[in-house]
Design a protein that fits this description.
2 copies of one chain form a homodimer. Chain A is of the alpha/beta class. The first copy, chain A, has 11 helices and 17 strands. Chain A is 31% helix and 24% strand. Chains A and B meet through β10 and α10 of A and β10 and α10 of B.
Chain lengths: 360, 360
């Protein structure tokens, strides 16, 4: 398996990536909504460009550092889905606005007032609504409509819409529950926007996040934009939610067996420094492709420890290679400086994870 | 709090680091054992040099990439506590041996045979023994003694000793349990070496790992080397095990409050991309210094969501800064390109995390 690459390594199947990118673009266009993929999953300008060429209207970034990398690569329509606070970041935001159309999300008058002092044309903001994630934002309806009114009165900012991320959806146990949670999320946002309209504030963007909800929420009347991220690579978390299959997962950690201390134990050279602890404790959180009789047991920083079922103890001697599907693609990509792009089982390119580590 | 630094950021208190480094050096010298700190915790040549100047006899690395960074910085005595496999790594190991004395740990004849073909003077190897970690290595006693005999017969390698990492100790619930587990670990290794001696193989190094066990295992007769890593920074995992206090933790994630959507909710700009998911689910896995009424609830990639006790809802408005003690210092350091070194509350230097991301 890819003898030209040393392990552990991040390997991306570009055929699967293209299929995933194309399929989500179709979901958006079939439903008449804009697609603004979150680039935190790949952190690679090349793949952001692929998404734009397939029909995305712009990109979403989590942090200014990511947005700067993407703008540097020529991408000129960016939603910063994170409240920007403090002089150093505001200076960077002002510079970013010279190169790209930038919108920012937030959930407080304090952050809006700070942004409002930036100068130049009013900063377009989306107000984050809490549809079940219990992170940023107030609940939908009156609490959020009041917040919108308060922020709309602040000079220097223009409230253009509402934004939310998957909330309840991530806890769904069945496809029907997921579909219902996603629809409710979209409807919550649309109803809040209607309340704002009755208050005299007209909002033109209803932006809803997440891969698991994208297919369902795109069809809710009034939703204007979807922001899935993980769909480009998928992972075992998406498989568990029923929105991906092994065939639609594009990211692998290529790893080598470096110890077989007991007949049933396989130790490989990929631990949390390649796979993170995200999802640990969930059965099947990491899957070895083509090895249904191998179960990952735990990870140390540099070791992955797996269990082989009886009858398979002679397999996977020291030096064998495995491809692991991570639990959370976004976090895993952030651990690597480069990824190997493959097609038809051949390494064809090295991709720079240019926005890796952009925490600020 | 450090207004000259933007957040989120990794901040290291160098006064605490010096105290931790000096104290562990004293533990080693008082017990007549060598100290070979694991540099995976800091990944910084400057701090490795500080450890050597304080009396460490060499360093431990997990991966070749870390060792290369350290050798490049002039460090010339390195234990690679990881089985090295495959042509690309063996070529790099040969080059590394030109610049530094290098020992390698392993647990299989296959890896030893590969190393044995390296050429040059025999490769000094330590055989890993499983004292409860259930990762690499066979159980102590006969299974490991037999493995040592098998490896000792392989040309091109010289078995110089046994190596283990904390096993049972990490699961200890009381200081007495921890001390007992650590002693048992040391004794298991020493008894295995005695068995090897009776088999005609004399071993000169008994090397035992981990910060929680270091103070206890250093006093076991026959142990020659301790390899703690985390002690230089400490973290909440070490606090829970009773081997660190808040005062002896040196690493902080400096973060800013970017949302206060509900009276009891504080959202900051440090999530798993700064803090990892290591330790999630353990109460108090992340602590905010000086804020006993704040409890971290969950992390998303870029958001930390915390709960404020009643009576404190007016505190921590948007823009406030907090210092967070991570659950696992080693993994957190790996997420940053630089750390800010502080003394007496002043930023005095930027430290390059030079061996960050060295997974190969």
């Amino acid at each position: 398996m890819y003898p030209e690459i040393d392990t552990p390594a991040l390997v991306i199947d570009l055929d699967v990536v293209r299929a995933n990118v194309s399929e989500m673009a179709k979901v958006a266009s079939a439903n008449g909504v804009r697609l603004r993929p979150h680039v935190k999953t790949h952190k690679m300008p090349e793949l952001a460009r692929m998404q734009l060429e397939a029909g995305a209207s712009g990109i979403t970034c989590a942090k200014l550092g990511e947005a700067e990398v993407m703008a540097q690569a020529g991408i000129d329509d960016i939603l910063l889905a994170f409240p920007i606070w403090g002089r150093p970041k505001l200076r960077r935001l002002a510079a970013l606005r010279e190169r790209a159309r930038v919108r920012v999300s937030l959930d407080s008058p304090e952050v809006a007032a700070d942004l409002g002092r930036l100068g130049g044309p009013p900063v377009e903001v989306l107000v984050e609504v809490d549809t079940g994630q219990h992170r940023l934002g107030r609940p939908p309806g009156r609490p959020s409509a009041d917040l919108v009114a308060e922020i709309a009165a602040i000079p220097g900012v223009e409230v253009v819409g509402l934004l939310t991320l998957a909330g309840h959806a991530y806890h769904s146990r069945t496809p029907a529950e997921l579909a219902e949670a996603a629809r409710r999320e979209g409807e919550d946002l649309v109803e809040t926007a209607e309340m704002c309209a009755r208050d005299g504030i007209s909002l033109r963007e209803i932006s809803v996040g997440s891969t698991p909800t994208a297919r369902h929420v795109a069809g809710v009347a009034g939703v204007t934009e979807i922001r899935p991220g993980t769909y480009i690579f998928n992972d075992t978390a998406m498989m568990r939610l029923g929105v991906a299959t092994e065939e639609s997962t594009a990211a692998r950690i290529l790893t080598t067996v470096i110890g077989r201390p007991m007949p049933e134990r396989v130790v490989c050279d990929a631990g949390t420094k390649c796979l993170t602890s995200d999802g640990y404790g969930t059965p099947g959180w990491i899957r070895a492709v083509g090895l249904p009789y191998l179960r990952m047991e735990f990870l140390n920083e540099e070791h992955g420890v797996a269990h082989l079922e009886p009858g398979h103890h002679a397999e996977l001697p020291v030096g064998s290679r495995m491809g692991l599907i991570p639990s959370h693609a976004c976090s895993v990509v952030n651990l690597f400086d480069i990824a190997y792009g493959v097609e038809d089982g051949e390494v064809i390119t090295e991709l720079s994870v240019a926005a890796r580590g952009a925490v600020r």
